UniProtKB/TrEMBL annotation:
The lineage of its organism: Bacteria, Bacillati, Bacillota, Bacilli, Bacillales. Belongs to the GGGP/HepGP synthase family. Group I subfamily. Sn-glycerol 1-phosphate binds at residues 16, 163-168, 193, 213-214. This is Heptaprenylglyceryl phosphate synthase. It comes from Paenibacillus lignilyticus. Prenyltransferase that catalyzes in vivo the transfer of the heptaprenyl moiety of heptaprenyl pyrophosphate (HepPP; 35 carbon atoms) to the C3 hydroxyl of sn-glycerol-1-phosphate (G1P), producing heptaprenylglyceryl phosphate (HepGP). This reaction is an ether-bond-formation step in the biosynthesis of archaea-type G1P-based membrane lipids found in Bacillales.
Length: 237
C-alpha cells in the first residue's frame, strides 16, 4: 500500500485535464511532453465513462503518469496509474463527504484497485467555483477554521492527500503556507488560478504539489511556463 501510494508523493507539478473540454492533439502533446510530473483527469460536471476513456487513451500514448479523480461512479475507468476519491471536508451536505462514495463502494468496493487508490480531502475555498456550488461548500473560511480542517484531515482522519481548491481563482498563499506547516502525514495539493510562472512559483513555495488547470485551455504557452517555474522551487519543508 505504502509504496504504491507514494506515486504522488514525488509530484511537484501536475496538469489537470477536464474530459468534458476539447483539447487538440497538438495541445495535448505539448502538455504531455512538458516535463510535468503527472496528469490528473477530472472535472466537476459532464464527466462520463466515454469522455474519460477517450482522454485516457490519448494521454496513454505518452509516458507521463496519469491519475483519475473519480467524482462520479459511472466514470470510474480502469487503466489509470492512480485513483483519487474526493471527500469534500467543508460542506454540510454529507453526501459529498461519505454519501456518494458509500453508494459506489457498496457496488464496486470489492473490485477497486486499493493499492492504487487514495482518498483526497478537499477544502474548497473559492465560493464561485463550480465545485463549491455543486457541493454546497462553505468556502469562506477564516484561518482558524482552515487550520481546524487541516487538523481533522491530517491528524484525525489521516488522509494521504489534502487538496486546497481555489479553482478559477488564485488563492491566499499565506493560508496555504499555514496549512503546510500543520500537515504531518498528508501531501498538500494546491490548485486554482495559476496562469503564469510567477503564480506557479508562489504556489510551489506554499504547497507540496501544484495543480494547473484552466490555463491549459486559455493560454498554452503560459501553461507550459508553469512547469519549469514549479520545478525550480525547492520543496517546502
Ligand atoms: C481545478 O485545482 C484545479 O480543480 C486547477 O484550478 O483550473 O483554476 O487552474 P485552475
Amino acid at each position: 500500500m505504502e509504496l504504491q501510494s507514494a506515486i504522488y508523493n514525488e509530484w511537484r507539478h501536475v496538469f489537470k485535464l477536464d474530459p468534458e473540454r476539447e483539447i487538440s492533439d497538438e495541445r495535448l502533446d505539448a502538455i504531455c511532453m512538458s516535463g510535468t510530473d503527472a496528469i490528473i483527469v477530472g472535472g466537476s460536471s459532464g464527466v462520463t465513462f466515454d469522455n474519460t476513456v477517450d482522454l485516457m487513451s490519448r494521454i496513454r500514448r505518452y509516458e507521463v503518469p496519469c491519475a483519475l479523480e473519480v467524482s462520479n461512479e459511472e466514470a470510474a475507468v480502469p487503466g489509470f496509474d492512480h485513483y483519487f476519491i474526493p471527500l469534500v471536508l467543508n460542506t454540510d451536505k454529507a453526501e459529498w463527504l461519505a454519501g456518494r462514495q458509500i453508494q459506489a463502494l457498496r457496488k464496486f468496493g470489492a473490485f477497486i484497485p486499493w493499492e492504487n487508490t487514495s482518498a483526497e480531502g478537499y477544502l474548497i475555498l473559492n465560493e464561485e467555483a463550480q465545485a463549491a456550488k455543486l457541493t454546497g461548500a462553505r468556502a469562506a473560511l477564516d484561518s482558524e477554521t482552515v487550520a481546524a480542517h487541516i487538523y481533522m484531515a491530517d491528524r484525525l482522519m489521516h488522509l494521504p492527500v489534502i487538496y486546497m481548491e481555489y479553482s478559477g481563482k488564485f488563492g491566499d498563499m499565506e493560508l496555504v503556507k499555514r496549512a503546510l506547516r500543520l500537515v504531518t502525514g498528508a501531501r498538500l495539493f494546491y490548485g486554482g488560478g495559476i496562469d503564469d510562472a510567477a503564480k506557479a512559483r508562489q504556489a510551489a513555495a506554499a504547497a507540496h504539489t501544484v495543480i494547473v488547470g484552466n490555463v491549459i485551455y486559455d493560454d498554452l504557452e503560459a501553461a507550459l511556463s508553469t512547469v519549469e517555474a514549479v520545478l525550480a522551487v525547492e520543496l517546502p519543508k
